[in-house]
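pls read this stuff:
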Amino acid sequence: MRPYLLDPMFAPAGSLPGIGPKNAKLFDRLLDKPQGARVIDVLFHLPQATVDRRARPKIRDAVPDTIVTIEAIVTEHRQPPNARSRAPFKVLVEDDTGDVELVFFLANHDWVRSKLPIGAKRWISGKLELWDGRRQIVHPDRVMDADELARLPSVEPVYGLTEGLYPRTVARAAEAALNRLPRLPEWIGDETMNRLKLPAFAEALGAMHHPARPEDVDPAGPAATRLAYDELLANQLALLLMRARMRVIPGRAHRAEGALGRDLEAALPFALTQAQQQAIDDIRADLKAEKRMLRLLQGDVGSGKTVVALMAMTDVVEAGRQAAMMAPTEILARQHFERIAPLAERIGLRIKLVTGRDRAPARRATLAALAEGGIDIAVGTHALIQESVAFADLGLAVVDEQHRFGVRQRLALASKGAAVDLLVMTATPIPRSLVLAYFGDMDVSALREKPPGRQPIDTRVLPIERLGEVVGRLGQATAAGARAYWICPLVDESETLDVAAAEERAAALTAVFGRAVGLVHGKMTAVERDAAMERFECGQTKILVATTVVEVGVDVPEATIMIVEHAERFGLAQLHQLRGRVGRGAGRSSCLLVYRGPLGEAARTRLETLRETEDGFRIAEEDLRLRGEGDVLGARQAGAPAFRFARLEIHAGLLTRAREEAEAALRHSERLTGDENRGLRLLLYLFERDEAARLIEAG
């Protein structure tokens, strides 16, 4: 399906001259391509930095602690006393202004003598340092004769490497890949090219791999901006094509009168916020339309997304169809069920919980009822998308904490019925640029208000030296009936080590508070975690020590204290989610962020931001600025291609323009057919938005 013009770019990397079978495997590892790296992967492996070798001073004028390239005569070899000595081999070189000592540790003496024979003129490039008042270069980067100097780039690109792969091998491979790049038509409009002052695609890649100045590899420079824009344009084209495809599949209008919705609203113990009402109105308009709904509902911690979803499900049931809500964990699914079941049953809806732990007889009865239409709303985990689960007429699929699911999983739930509307929800506010980049195929509703009655949370930052004081105050609070979370540090990416930290803290607190301490972590079985949570919910335990398994969805209104140990190790959005576990009841709540100093600038900014604001949307934007888009989404949705060039903390301003250009292209040619759109079709293949490109080919 891929145009033959691009075949050279998608050939194996091993086909490039100088790579060979051994290096091909190293490139597979370097480029994270277990199925085999390709030429385009080598081409798109851009330099991370540069070494500036433009400074070519006389020895007397060379600036210490800088990279210099000097011309000198070799005047003396200062060899170790014997071959077994660990002393360095030193070589003295000089020009008419002074001398420099070249220092080689554990060097091959024959190589040093042959490379630097006495009396020879050489050009030496490396970092000049002062040691005991003398100029020296330890292990020069380059020792060259005149011919080698002529081939030395003045500004040398620095590539990411893997063990066994040398810089010059990667540079030669990148050069060969660049030579394979075919002549391609321009796909960016003249107005954008002029407004952003962008170079051509091939010119941008050439500038990155052959920088004339260090600024040429700057992510904010013209070359990197061009490649980032290309990638964002491909991304937006793909999202719009996929959206158009979803819209082509006809929907079914849900024509509810709203009677059940009014009954539900009357049964609520609180009034809907203006933001909730607006989201409900948007969803109802979608549900009544003939096209399928594809909507993202994002809201801050405690903004009331579940009630909005229940309103939507109520309308679908009134229209004669079924609804399903899928959550990523059994704890969260059970909490959703326990929260909405009383309201649903009060207005006559039949609701059932479906999880992987259901006993066989109960499961058979539930599946039969679902298939026969005896259940209006199913709430569950991944169990809902198992092949054995069938609905009589599923009309609405609600996916909670969508970033924990892959694209295929949420579409699998939507495929359980004919023309199913899809509502995905997240409690992690997403910066506007990320919404456009990753959810541009969806309509978006945002809940920026908190329901009345939600208490502000007193957030304080404390050094770990005051931990004893924290434990003492915790004892006073729990004696007065309070309940508290104690979150243990992220040791590293190893869940095992994080669990060990939680177990150690739980043991220390148990020594003080006895059976009042509970423990929950990701290595427990679902049964063990649920039991620990239930003991905390009913007050049997007062202090719950946990890893970040309680980050999302855990709802215990009686819990009013959140202690995060080693808070400097957590991301900003993650800290905000953890803090959101308290402040859910009528009591005053507090969050203690305990850190070990000294704090780096980024960690200090994170903790100060948490102390200053509870606005999750502001926090999300700050988190993007601090960490970059790659980390902000957390567990990235399966199937969403990561950006290679675009860094949204730098290039977010390009997204709106890319969206506008993609929309304009599709307005002129809905399927991007015709010679005038050949460049855009090639762009989709180059950036591996193949699924969208295939939609064009399919017509």
